[in-house]
Design goal:
heterodimer; A: 334 residues; alpha/beta; Rossmann fold; B: 282 residues; mainly alpha
Chain lengths: 334, 282
């Protein structure tokens, strides 16, 4: 594993609110998609962001590359505050963080050839002077993602989903980024193709020393590729830590429920022992007081309804739960 | 894989599937050729009046379609009328598309400008074109400039609205976000990614808009608004001949055929283009 000292992306108290339309005399309300998230991304690692749909994981990723405007908080890229940089000032920095979107069918302009798509980021960032240099770089990239350079003249619709996602990866790599932000990058792919693309991600990380932020709702994908995981619920991080620890002994009640919902081929978790959450995820507009999870938590106490738990160190990871704060002994016995 | 297919064969296959483009294209080609080679096809001046040869019947004194009440050759006026019609229709549609898409792009990208510009466009599109022409002619005097600008103002809001809607939906698309994520500016994104996705619509709109422009030009010149008197236009010819329609019906009939053929040709062409290029807008 690579050294994990250097922080490449630092997020502190990030909030992304979307105003919802209102009538004249109503109070302005917000969808609190991301509500006070803090984490560090270390160079060379893969951080997985997991959670059910609507928990704000994609918004968090998009806010980190400023595709969504942060409402509050701080984003430091390589120590530089990019939270409130103007779009113009941000443009030269964008090449360091590239995004890979979920749907390879809509993330590639279907009127452009593959070659033009891959060369576009180089042109925008003025990376190479001549067309010939760009083309040879594009050929290298095609090889790096496992496609034949002969395909440069073709159009995206001539490729399958997995190949398209490879093209999208080649486009993202064109600017030699440090961080790849993958927004459900393999969710739209067939299971058989998914593993190949995940392995490609791992290869590229080794080859180019990339840092990944990997958003997915699929726990098996997270388990496959990530070094660390952050579990999100209603716009907050519930638990964040090294993958093995979180997966082997989940601390937060929500993480426990989420992991026990993963279907498994071997019978180590009998169905009756599964933790089934009651009710629905609360509205991100009128969030529950205190711990946002208390409405569905089986350990919820009066304190959980009143007080928002902070992320605190517990058993080698950070957990936002009062259970471990009040009585560490009881928690450890579990 | 790459087989040589002769151009003629390709054209044959194409015309089988896109008959409307071929029919429309043929009719328009005829009108265009008539307009372009007008000086070769007639010896008569379309504007100079001749008091001695008024209301001649077809074929008399070398006048193919006779003369009108002012003694001007009808055939020559139709030929030069084609020039006027095509020139104005094409100019109007080109400017409409250009200005309309520019306004649409601005509105789609900048919500504050959108709020103001769309209200203005709505106000303008509620005015009849004829009224606009009257006002502009009063301000700027009659002539091509005021007529064309009035027709552009009258028809651009449709284009602007379409491009605006396209921009708004395309902005949400991931390939446009990706362009922003790689560090491209708004302008580059608009020109390279958003506009090309409107291009087939704009081309279709251009084709079918030409017919509409010819009709409104005919209407306006029938009413005698816009162009200076004497300019050869089909609408003016009809108006001129309408007074003696019972005696000389063919004098009304000939320019009407010209209008009908060109409008039919353009709408066929427009429909064909739509089926070919953007079947989703059907």
């Amino acid at each position: 594993m690579m050294e994990k000292n250097e922080i490449i992306l630092q997020v502190r108290g990030l909030k992304v609110y979307f105003p919802i339309s209102k009538l004249i005399f109503q109070k302005q309300k917000y969808i609190k998609a991301v509500n006070g998230v803090s984490f560090d991304l270390f160079r060379g690692e893969t951080l997985g962001i997991a959670g059910e749909s609507g928990c704000g994981k994609s918004t968090l990723l998009r806010a980190c590359v400023r595709l969504n405007e942060p409402t509050d908080g701080k984003i430091l890229l390589d120590g530089r505050d990019i939270t409130h940089l103007s779009n113009r000032a941000l443009r030269p920095l964008r090449r360091k963080t590239q995004v890979i979107f979920q749907d390879p069918y809509s993330s590639l302009d279907n009127r452009w050839t593959v070659g033009r798509l891959i060369e576009e980021p180089m042109k925008v960032n003025k990376l190479y002077k001549t067309k010939a240099e760009r083309t040879s770089r594009a050929k290298e990239l095609m090889q790096a993602v496992g496609l034949s350079p002969e395909y440069l003249g073709r159009f995206p619709h001539e490729f399958s989903g997995g190949q398209r996602q490879r093209i999208a990866i080649a486009c993202a790599l064109a600017t030699s980024p440090d961080i790849l932000m993958c927004d459900e990058a393999v969710s739209a792919l067939d299971v058989s193709v998914r593993a190949q693309v995940l392995n490609l991600f791992a290869d590229l990380q080794r080859k180019f020393g990339l840092t990944y932020m990997f958003v997915s709702h699929d726990m098996s994908v997270i388990e496959h590729i990530c070094d660390r995981v952050a579990i999100m619920y209603l716009g907050r991080i519930m638990e964040i830590g090294v993958k093995r620890r979180v997966f082997d002994s989940p601390a937060h009640p929500y993480t426990q429920a989420l992991l026990s919902a993963v279907p498994s081929a071997n019978e180590d978790v009998p169905p009756e022992k599964r933790i089934v959450l009651e009710g629905d995820i609360p509205s991100p507009v009128d969030q529950p007081s205190g711990c946002v999870f208390h409405t569905r938590c089986r350990y919820a106490t009066e304190r959980c309804k009143a007080e928002v738990p902070e992320l605190k160190e517990y058993d080698g990871r950070l957990v936002a739960c009062h259970k471990y704060d009040e009585n560490n002994e009881k928690g450890k016995k579990r | 894989m790459k087989q040589k297919i002769s151009f003629g064969r390709k054209l044959l296959v194409f015309s089988k599937h896109h008959g409307r483009i071929m029919i429309g294209g043929f009719l328009i080609l005829v009108i265009v050729l008539l307009g372009v080679f007008a000086p070769l096809l007639t010896d008569f001046d379309p504007i100079a009046t001749n008091g001695y040869q008024v209301n001649l019947r077809s074929g008399q004194e070398g006048h193919l379609l006779g003369t009108d009440a002012q003694g001007r050759d009808v055939w020559s006026r139709i030929l030069y009328g084609a020039r006027t019609s095509l020139l104005i229709a094409v100019t109007v549609q080109l400017i409409t598309i250009a200005v309309g898409s520019l306004i649409g792009l601005v509105c789609g990208y900048f919500p504050k400008a959108d709020l103001i510009i769309m209200r203005i466009l709505e106000a303008i599109s509620s005015l009849p074109t004829i009224l606009l022409v009257y006002v502009l002619v009063m301000i700027m005097g009659s002539g091509y400039v005021s007529l064309i600008s009035a027709m552009v103002i009258g028809s651009m809001s449709g284009v602007a609205r379409y491009v605006r809607a396209q921009v708004m939906s395309l902005r949400q698309k991931e390939f446009v976000e990706r362009e922003i994520a790689i560090g491209a500016g708004t302008f580059r994104t608009m020109v390279l990614h958003v506009l090309p996705h409107c291009s087939s619509y704009l081309l279709v709109r251009f084709g079918s808009g030409l017919g509409g422009s010819i009709i409104s030009l005919a209407t306006l010149s029938f009413l005698g608004v816009g162009l200076p008197g004497g300019t050869p236009t089909w609408g003016a010819d009809i108006a001129n001949a309408a007074g003696k329609m019972m005696v000389y019906p063919e004098k009304v009939f000939f320019p009407m055929i010209a209008i009908a053929v060109s409008v039919y040709g353009f709408s066929m062409l427009g429909d064909g283009l739509r089926d070919w290029l953007s079947p989703e807008t059907r």
